[in-house]
Design brief:
The chain is of the alpha+beta class. A 4-stranded mixed beta sheet has the order 1-3-4-2.
């Protein structure tokens, strides 16, 4: 029984922001990335049909953003333009576009 409990607890962990993803900026206005190099489309998501009972909306949202930022770093992006938030009852998903922007 304790093995089952430990397994179910580990399934409730949310995405954590990688240390190298701290510098990734998220924008909701295209003007902020229009002079940047487009690198690709990303989807960040957190939550499963069985986890929303145990994880707050805030933690689901932060986990989804961490997933998005981690994926951005993986393709060399430092900025994300969030296109859409897909609201589900059991999870949080963001659709975004990754960019490499000049550092100011």
């Amino acid at each position: 029984m304790s093995c089952l409990t430990l397994t179910s607890c580990s399934m409730l962990d949310t995405h954590q922001l990688d240390d190298n993803a701290n510098h990734v900026n998220i924008y909701d206005d295209f003007e902020q990335v229009k002079h940047c190099q487009y690198l690709g489309e990303l989807v960040g998501s957190e939550g499963k049909w069985y986890t929303f009972f145990f994880i707050s909306n805030t933690d689901l949202t932060l986990g989804s953003i961490a997933d998005l930022k981690n994926k951005a770093v993986d393709i060399g992006a430092n900025s994300i333009h969030i296109e859409e938030h897909m609201g589900f009852n059991t999870s949080v998903t963001f659709l975004g576009h990754a960019y490499e922007c000049p550092q100011s």
